Amino acid sequence: MKLKNILLIFTFLLLLTSCSSKNNSLEYSNNSLVFVTKSYMKKQEGYDWISVKFEKLDKNQARVIIRSRADKKKPRCTFDGIAYKKSNNKYISYTANANIVFIIKNNKLNITTEKNSNENSLYFYCSGGATLKAEYIKYNKKLDLAQIDNTQYQKSFFSKKVSFFVTQKDNILKIQTTGLKYSKEPFIHKTKAKVFHSEVADINEDGNIEIYIYLKDKKQASVIAYSVNNYLSATPIYISDLKYNKEAFKGYTGLDSFKISNNKLVRTFPLENGKTKKIEYKLIAGEATWQLKIDKIEIY
Predict the structure, then answer these.
(1) pLDDT for residue 14 is more than 50
(2) What is the pLDDT of residue 71?
(3) Which residues constitute the signal peptide according to the record (predicted)?
(4) Does residue 55 have a pLDDT over 80?
(5) pTM for this predicted structure
(6) Among 21-35, 120-134, 255-269, which stretch is predicted with the lowest mean pLDDT?
(7) What are the structural domains of the chain?
(8) H or E element: which one contains 247?
(9) Contacts by 141-149 with C-beta closer than 8 Å and gap 24+?
């Protein structure tokens, strides 16, 4: 076989592999990617439908937002979470109920669980017998804003003694608790910053859980947090603005993220030299309220 023919075959195989890879991975447009159930194409006939939106956080993480039709009745399915990349076409979101798996192949998305025995947990995020388990197709147009549930964020946390219900709608963040004797009314925050994740922990290991809600406004992230007090009430946790600590603030240009790790609230952000600054906070009892105090700063 002539060298020219070999090169042509090799080039064709490369193009074929490239196209297949793109169809089987998250190829973002404007940092987002949308899938819908096939019933979306019949929405004008009154069919119910579900959408799945991936918002890119970084090369290994995406925020997953699942919403459904809400113009004729209450939305059937709602989910907010962070999915972590396991391979080009596989992402996993770790929840209290199960590890939810998102698999992309040939411009289609399938949602399932890591263990088959946990598939029933996908009903938890829906009502009326619906489930997240379905095949979704890639959708390149804007979703119907007149039909879709416009809740910006929604997540629930349950424990034996207390539960938290976090919602954001029309730029109103609401944190509702149940199981506490005195904190009956919801905590409300008016904010243009968008909630992108939340989690519960007990980072000071005093037996009282805290809730941490992470928000982003343009390039900057922030935290709203509350601690349970002897399972009677919940009070805010104060965190000082980063600019008041010169060492921590040096090199800060935004693009920060938060997470709980090893009983610390960990904040990271990129530096202009390509390195990353990591700030660890510990939870302490202040004179009037709980405080997140910087415990360690490192650059790697």
Answers:
(1) no
(2) 93
(3) 1-23
(4) yes
(5) 0.82
(6) 21-35
(7) 32-138 (2.40.128), 153-299 (no CATH)
(8) helix 246-249
(9) 143/34, 143/36, 143/51, 144/43, 146/71, 147/43, 147/49, 147/69, 147/70, 147/71, 148/51, 148/67, 148/68, 148/69, 148/70, 149/67, 149/68, 149/69, 149/70, 149/75, 149/78
